[in-house]
Amino acid sequence: MDKAKRTAIIAGNWKMNKTPKEATALLNAIAPLVADADCEVIACVPYVDLAAAIEATEGTNIKIGAENCHWAESGAFTGEISTGMLKEIGVEYVVLGHSERRQYFGETDETVNKRTKAALAAGLKPIVCVGELLWERECNITEEVIARQIKLDLWDVTEEELKNVVIAYEPVWAIGTGKTATADQAEEVCAFIRAQLAKLYNQEAADAVTIQYGGSMNDGNADELLSKVNVDGGLIGGASLVAEKFAAIVKAASK
Ligand code: PEP
């Protein structure tokens, strides 16, 4: 399948930024700038912003995602949010396994897998994040790390379910650091991810998966990164908080 047939997706990951009122204002600023987008546009926002974000984007082409979810349907998990809670208010996507969750909140491939399975079962579309640490890249084990994450994070995910999975390749050393992977580095790993998916499923299934790059993508480097055959979109942190910058990335993905 050629790249043009895959869904290009630009998703903002707001992290722990913006109150509900600020979220409404930012989405109101973004909406007219991306109205003509020829790609999917998503804003993944903090839990407490979700309701306001869904209301603010009604009638627009912006979809709303959460930044995490728990795998249990309900129960004694103080502070957690279930897939059913997200689904009921109209959330469509959920970021899972972000490196900040892995680094600061004890997320492992096993828990990413549980969350991914639960999200899919609830009809949410997971954006599953994988990526190597700087130390791992320097030790030349990027492919080993990525292969392990893909295999474990998608363990027991069926070929049918894979159609609703988005993969985000986010080299940890490039997130929030201003250091972007070169377009060739991004392409190399995104192509490797697709090859792993072909091994685990088959080529047709792998060719249909949207694989994003994330890590200091911005309005200045998006064109080059998104021109690569296996880079189907972006997961955008810092630049997603500035309407004009985010819209420029959406425009680059729409070419
Ligand atoms: C992210 O949070 O997923 C991310 C890629 O952040 P940034 O764009 O700020 O590097």
How are the elements arranged and paired?
Layout: E1 9-13, H1 20-33, E2 40-44, H2 50-56, E3 62-66, H3 83-88, E4 93-96, H4 99-104, H5 109-122, E5 125-130, H6 134-138, H7 142-153, H8 159-162, E6 166-169, H9 183-200, H10 203-207, E7 210-214, H11 222-226, E8 233-236, H12 243-253
Parallel strand pairs: 1-2, 1-8, 2-3, 3-4, 4-5, 5-6, 6-7, 7-8
Helix pairs in contact: 1-2, 1-12, 7-9
Bound molecules: phosphoenolpyruvate.
Number of H- or I-type helical stretches: 12
Helix and strand string, N-terminal first?
A: EHEHEHEHHEHHHEHHEHEH
Roughly what percent helix? 40-55%
Order of neighbouring strands in the sheet with most strands: 1-2-3-4-5-6-7-8
Cα Rg: 17 Å
Strand content: 5-15%
What oligomeric state do these chains adopt? single chain
Molecular structure report:
This protein has 255 residues and is α/β, with parallel strands linked by helices. The protein is built from 12 helices and 8 strands. The two termini are 18 Å apart. The mean pLDDT is 97. The structure holds phosphoenolpyruvate. Residues 13, 15, 170, 175-176, 214-217, 235-239 line the site of phosphoenolpyruvate.
